[in-house]
Amino acid sequence: MLWLKAFHIVFMVTWFAGLFYLPRLFIYHLDAREPAAHERFVLMERRLLLITHIGAALAAAFGIALLLWWSDRAEGYLRQGWLHAKFALVALLIAYHVACMRLAADFRDGRNRRSSRWLRIYNELPALVLIGIVVLVVVKPF
Questions:
Q1: What are the tens digits of pLDDT across the range 31-58?
Q2: What Rg do the C-alpha atoms of the chain give, in angstroms?
Q3: Could you tell me if 38 and 32 are in contact, meaning their C-beta atoms sit under 8 angstroms apart?
């Protein structure tokens, strides 16, 4: 179980790293005016998204493995309120990830309509989700 937990955390960190940095790349991309710079940012965003996808998939896989392990050994585990709240935050994080994919496509295709200020605020959202998830998992308030 500790191996599952360790790898779940490693890939969760990988996933969050991508979600923290991708909107920052969008801000830099917004300021790029030369076609060569645009192409460079498109390539960077595509590569970062790939790493982020892998982190998300492996975090989910190890998370599901942990869930199965605990549900088999702790009666009532799946009925705990903190776990349901965590699932809701993970669903929110997945929606954020999908939105980042759409933003990357908009930047790639020259369709971005978001401002630098909007992107800077948007960039802070995964930090709030991270705080919520960590508090739920560690404190288990309900």
A1: 999 999 999 999 999 999 999 999 999 9
A2: 17
A3: yes
